[in-house]
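re: that complex we talked abt at group meeting.

here r the seqs, copy pasted straight from the sheet so there may be weird spacing, ignore it
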Amino acid sequence: MASYPVRIVRFYRDGFKSMTLGKTLWKIIFVKLFIMFAVVKFFFFPDFLSTRFSTDEQRADYVMEQITAPAQKSN
Amino acid sequence: MGEIDLALVNWSRAQFALTAMYHWLFVPLTLGLSFLCAFFETIYVKTGNEEWKHLTKFWMTLFGINFAIGVATGIILEFEFGTNWSNYSWMVGDIFGAPLAVEGIVAFFLEATFFAVMFFGWDRVSKGFHLFSTWMVAVGSNLSALWILVANGWMQYPTGMAFNPDTVRFEMQNFWEVLFSPVAIAKFTHTTSTSFLVAVMFVFAVSSYYLIKRRHVEMAKRSILVASVFGLISFVYAGLTGDESAYNNARIQPMKLAAYEGLYEGKRGADLVAFGVMNPDKTVGDGQDPFLVEVAIPKGLSLLGKRQFDAFIPGVNDLVYGNAEENIVGYDQKIERGKQAIADLSAYKDAQKAGDAGAAEIALAQFKENQEFLGFGYLQKPEDGIPPVQTSYYSFHIMVYLAVFFGLLCLAYLVYGIKDTIEEKRWLLPFGVISFFLAMIASQAGWVVAEVGRQPWAIQNMLPVGVATSNLAAGNVMTTFWMFAILFTLLLLAEIKIMLNQIKKGPEGA
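got the structure back, here u go
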């Protein structure tokens, strides 16, 4: 009898092989994840504070400045 | 931060609303259908009847389609936090970190592990283990929702935390207080129970379609019977948790309650508007009647909000302009104290930079005196603290009317299901078919009440949305708004197409 890790690998392998509709769904999932992480996140959604400042202290100072300079309008 | 770019704030809001609402098209079905699959499979395991196995596999396939298309759509919201809402993200990072990390772990281990068994494991693991896996997927999916709803609950009722002016962060002081806050509990229970109803309506819609077409009749009738029992229980539960939410609103977010009830002038023994058409020209403090037509339940709102017939429920006017008789402080005074809090915070930071420990200590002590009004300091005038009343009012009432319809439909389907005459009720079945679309509207309307009703706050009373945003160009946010609109619409179309194909194939295609 095969060991547990081997049985688990076979379980998943055979499961994926036997899929019909599931193959289409997995394709959609992968395309979606690629678009989200490799395109949307990378090109359009950089982390605002991480990309502008190198330390947490700088980030905290920046946010403090943002929230203490009185706003003209709030919403 | 100088003058806030309103276009930026509104595009950021619109983008968040768009992505959240699209995400929410998929989530309630996952939460509810997972439990229905577990019920169906439990009956199969108990009875050994293969018909129930086919039925379970059919609904499981539809569940899988919805899950696959919807999975990770919520990640976009996290992207937006970091890019569009960086001030907010920074300030709440310590609070949100724990719940969202737990959500990730729970989702990964429970769903990823047992999801595979649920789909690949038929005939490869024991019946008992397969059933256990199906239940774990249901429990895991709903537990995942718990953590994000706890985070949302905290935004509505920031508790168990302290603001640290050195890190400029709200820092968690008591995890259990955050987890078991009354708002978080009501939010989780109401959201899940209403999501169960959405899934029940989905089962009704598909099954009713089959009955109209006289296809898969036995499967449809079995599905309806189980779903209607679950639906009725969920309906009662949703009513109780909705009542709890209103009770919390009265105590914690009275402006939201006043907005979704269209209540401008507060009173003792306030009436509950059962039906009403709002006056579109009504503005706060103008003395006009807020309703053109109104049918109200006497003292109903006092009972709903305070659980006493003669309790005072403040209206928009009372909250904005104050009501000395009822000891309600107006927004003008809160704004003053909020501006003082901002000034003291600024003085604290300056003193820290100058190395003046004494001045810093004094400024901090003064800040703490007014800290609870911090957010009001960003409002320019009291009226800025009013959410869109008509949007809140109509969303709330649409949600309630539809909920009553779902309750009646569950009852009718259960009665005719037990009598085994459901397929003869041709007049009733079209209501079942449209019920799912109505359920989606009700579910979305519920979130509109929850989120629009609490404007202008990103964090209740502490941080308005205008201060929570990043300093970006509005054009950038507008571009990504349309990009998401296209992406999510494509995903939705894919879901509809695949789902309809599968429904046409019926249980043989599962």
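couple things i noticed - DSSP finds 17 helices and eight strands in chain B. Chain B touches chain A through 65 residues (CB under 8 Å).
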